[in-house]
Amino acid sequence: MHASRRMIGLLLQRLLLLALVVGLWWYGASRVPAFVLPGPDKVLDALVRLVHSASFFNDLGATMGRVLTGFLLAVLVGTPLGLALGGSRLLARFFEPVLAVLNTVSSAIWAIFAIIWFGISDATTVFVVFMTAMPLILTNVWQGAQAVDRQYIELARAFRFSRTATLLKVSLPSILPYFFSGARLAFGFGWRVSLVAETLGSSNGIGYRLRQAADLVQSDQVFAWTVLLVALMLVLEAGVLKPLERWLFRWKL
């Protein structure tokens, strides 16, 4: 009963916040030209036209496919590298400057390199997402591996656990929260930088359509795509990531 009241209260707060944002948006739109700030009604009409357009699902699928591909590659590369650095101080000291450089270089620079190397293709966006997400996952897994209590490792050795059993039963429960935190952050960043890459090096996708609408001063289309992106991220966060996090860490409850 208490949980239900809390959920209802939270929902009412979110609805109040949404009403406040829409109200301020409507007021601002009434004070400036539509090409500067289109009102919610114009953006809603533009969003309906987008959904019914012939290229909508193709553009949406292209962007999501590139983001997921780059993100999965980042997980496959960043996770074992993070475990390796976390398990070896020598490797960590040797490769730490490289990781600092990877975390410093901006996504826009990676996008320029990608266009030079891959041209106008899916590989450009995939590469930018990968180079943005991989260092984040690597760093978090590395930190998680360092946070594993050495006493538990020694206890596992005393019971003659294999390396695989030690990793799965001792290290993984400590590393998983760090990995999940890094993966969520990496996916969010990857989704955003994919739009930057698509504006520069793609002939379809959401980023390409945003650039096209901006070039034609179609502000309602730009806002419609933006609202759609925000809605998608909220659905992924509330419908996929949070339930997955609760399921993975149910043992903590």
Automatic annotation (TrEMBL):
<feature type="transmembrane region" description="Helical">
    <location>
        <begin position="166"/>
        <end position="187"/>
    </location>
</feature>
<feature type="transmembrane region" description="Helical">
    <location>
        <begin position="222"/>
        <end position="241"/>
    </location>
</feature>
<dbReference type="InterPro" id="IPR000515">
    <property type="entry name" value="MetI-like"/>
</dbReference>
<dbReference type="Pfam" id="PF00528">
    <property type="entry name" value="BPD_transp_1"/>
</dbReference>
<keyword id="KW-0812">Transmembrane</keyword>
<dbReference type="GO" id="GO:0005886">
    <property type="term" value="C:plasma membrane"/>
</dbReference>
<feature type="transmembrane region" description="Helical">
    <location>
        <begin position="98"/>
        <end position="120"/>
    </location>
</feature>
<feature type="domain" description="ABC transmembrane type-1">
    <location>
        <begin position="60"/>
        <end position="240"/>
    </location>
</feature>
<dbReference type="InterPro" id="IPR035906">
    <property type="entry name" value="MetI-like_sf"/>
</dbReference>
<keyword id="KW-1133">Transmembrane helix</keyword>
<feature type="transmembrane region" description="Helical">
    <location>
        <begin position="67"/>
        <end position="86"/>
    </location>
</feature>
<comment type="similarity">
    <text>Belongs to the binding-protein-dependent transport system permease family.</text>
</comment>
<dbReference type="GO" id="GO:0055085">
    <property type="term" value="P:transmembrane transport"/>
</dbReference>
<protein>
    <submittedName>
        <fullName>Nitrate ABC transporter permease</fullName>
    </submittedName>
</protein>
<keyword id="KW-0813">Transport</keyword>
<keyword id="KW-1003">Cell membrane</keyword>
<feature type="transmembrane region" description="Helical">
    <location>
        <begin position="126"/>
        <end position="145"/>
    </location>
</feature>
<keyword id="KW-0472">Membrane</keyword>
